[in-house]
Design goal:
Serine Threonine Protein Phosphatase 5, Tetratricopeptide repeat; globular; 498 residues; mainly alpha; binds iron/sulfur cluster; binds flavin-adenine dinucleotide
Length: 498
């Protein structure tokens, strides 16, 4: 029978999204395309490749169980998969939900696929235009408040519940001295036949530690993780959000980003669950607000910045940073820096590190060492379980590398060893001394931090948020010696001996 086909992309795995929302087994056929070219095109982290492909295959099985005729096609490319599907089933038309990346939208248009509006995010780029209105300057905080009011989340009439919009001040505590086991261990599931067969097909293209059930691959599993987070972890969310510990990689982070990014969870249900826990008195205000800010504020803001500024945005490099990614990023043994080694080893083991490790360790290092932002984006994109172009590009190019010249962040997130020492337990026992900026044991973060502000002093002395740091760099008595040490460090970094 000739039916219209819904082509489901690998990051739209939800029955309630776009074209699938109103479909029934009687009205539509469903197509998935697993492209070998796409899988083999890069060296992915094995947990990431496994997560996406397994989630696709398991979602296809769920739709089959619901009675849908699903054509799950293995093809060398998307185009070939679509052509073969059309040849075999002669659909009346092929429909897709608006893809989440710029490239996929162009592909759909080239292949003549009709797209329907997506409800995968709470603020569609068309609605974002209403927020932009005639505003001259755009801040995440303004967008977040606009979202709170519009979506009626944590509101008391027209006022924010609890009398304040922002509890960030309470949420920047350094790591506690004791009780590092206070945060419950994330659950795991037993890998099944589908997992094993996916691993067989993807493993040869990948790097990193094999999956051990860390990341759920079904909606049921993702919902269980959400429940567990809300009941046991959310009450502690916030307070130590910016802390980093060798002995605890997750702290009170939700670990929900992969599910949100492929559609196994939707942002609205995640926010409702957190808000209800607050209303029931199970979660304090600073935790509920801190978490909800991440989802309806940061996440949706990043999504809309991506659509506002692509495609030129991905190629920006305003600081002219052109150093190659150093060998430690693919082999953590190539550094003695305790903080970098610990975070990079964690990425290898879990395909994940939390926000501050991404921003203030890896991103900070790439920024102050002058690593090419496109190379750094690509490495992160290949390595992280939750990566997608829409979220990786603004977070790397804008937030962490200042490669957009300040469109997204009003200052460069550069810091020296003192910040890492305050917020983590990495410095104790490191071969480097975070207080030293010259000598063999000078801390690379400290040296490169000062060197960064000396290199870019003309630009940043005009920026009120960092002008003080620039002036402090200009007044260093040992600035010449420091720049020589920095140049030597760069060489060591390139040769994998730093
Ligand atoms: C350099 C860099 C690269 C990043 N790359 C990605 C990426 O590829 N994919 C990704 O989902 N996030 C990315 N982020 C944002 C953030 O670090 C992750 O969303 C977060 O660490 C995911 O872990 P979690 O679910 O435990 O987060 P939590 O700390 O529990 O936060 C809750 C949720 O808030 C959302 N969120 C918070 N901050 C952001 C943000 N800046 N952008 C988008 N969503 C946010 C996420 O959905 C996250 O699940 C990046 C940040 C930086 C600085
Ligand atoms: S001393 Fe420097 S290199 Fe070592 S852990 Fe601290 S910040 Fe990192």
């Amino acid at each position: 029978m000739s039916l219209p086909t819904i082509w489901v992309f690998g990051d739209q795995l939800n029955r309630g999204i776009g074209a699938l929302a109103g479909a029934t087994p009687q009205t539509h056929r469903v197509l998935f395309i697993e492209s070998t070219v796409k899988i083999a095109s890069r060296k992915w982290h094995v947990q990431r490749a496994h997560f996406i492909v397994t989630s696709m295959r398991k979602f296809a099985n769920e739709l089959r169980n619901e009675g849908f005729h699903v054509d799950y096609r293995f093809a060398s490319s998307m185009r070939e998969g679509l052509d073969l599907h059309v040849l075999e089933f002669q659909p009346t038309e092929v429909i897709a939900t608006e893809p989440n990346s710029y490239g996929a939208r162009q592909l759909a248009a080239r292949l003549g696929v009709r797209t329907v509006s997506s409800n995968q995010f709470l603020c569609h780029p068309d609605e974002y235009q209403t927020f932009l209105g005639s505003r001259k300057s755009i801040k995440m905080e303004d967008f977040y408040r606009w979202q709170r009011k519009r979506l009626n989340v944590l509101m008391d009439g027209n006022e924010p519940a609890g009398g304040r919009w922002n509890f960030d001040e309470e949420n920047r505590q350094p790591p506690p001295k004791t009780g590092h086991d206070r945060w419950p261990e994330p659950e795991r599931y037993e890998l099944d036949e589908v997992d094993r067969s996916v691993l067989e097909s993807v493993q040869k293209y990948c790097f990193g530690k094999l999956p051990e059930g860390q990341w759920a691959t079904t909606r049921e599993g993702a919902l269980a993780r959400l429940r567990n987070f809300v009941d046991h972890v959310l009450p502690m969310f916030g307070e130590h959000e910016d802390a980093m510990l060798k002995s605890n990689w997750h702290l009170a982070h939700s670990l929900l980003s992969p599910y949100l990014n492929v559609g196994l969870l939707l942002p609205g249900e995640v926010v409702s669950a957190a808000e209800k826990a607050f209303q029931d008195g199970n979660v304090p205000m600073n935790s509920a607000e801190g978490f909800i800010r991440q989802i309806i504020g940061w996440r949706e803001y990043i999504w809309n910045c991506y659509w506002q500024w692509m495609p030129e945005y991905a190629q920006m490099n305003s600081l002219g940073a052109n150093k190659d990614l150093p060998p430690m990023f693919t082999d953590p043994a190539k550094t003695s820096m305790a903080c970098m080694k610990s975070v990079l080893t964690g990425v290898n083991e879990r395909s994940y590190s939390h926000h501050i490790e991404r921003l203030m360790v890896l991103g900070n290092f790439a920024l102050i060492a002058g690593i090419n932002p496109q190379q750094f984006t690509r490495w992160m994109w290949n390595s992280y379980i939750d990566a997608a172009e829409w979220v990786m590009v603004p977070n790397v190019i804008g937030m962490s590398q200042y490669a957009d010249g300040g469109l997204l962040a009003t200052k460069p997130y550069a810091s020296g060893g003192a910040y890492i020492d305050r917020m983590s337990d990495h410095c104790k026992g490191c071969v480097y001394d975070r207080k030293k900026r010259t000598g063999d044991d000078a801390c690379p973060f400290t040296v490169l931090y000062w060197d960064f502000f000396l290199r870019h002093q003309e630009r940043f002395v005009k920026n009120p948020r960092v002008a003080r740091q620039v002036r402090a760099a200009q007044q260093l008595q040992d600035s010449e010696e420091l720049q020589v040490v920095a140049a030597e460090m760069m060489k060591k970094m390139d040769s994998g001996t730093i």
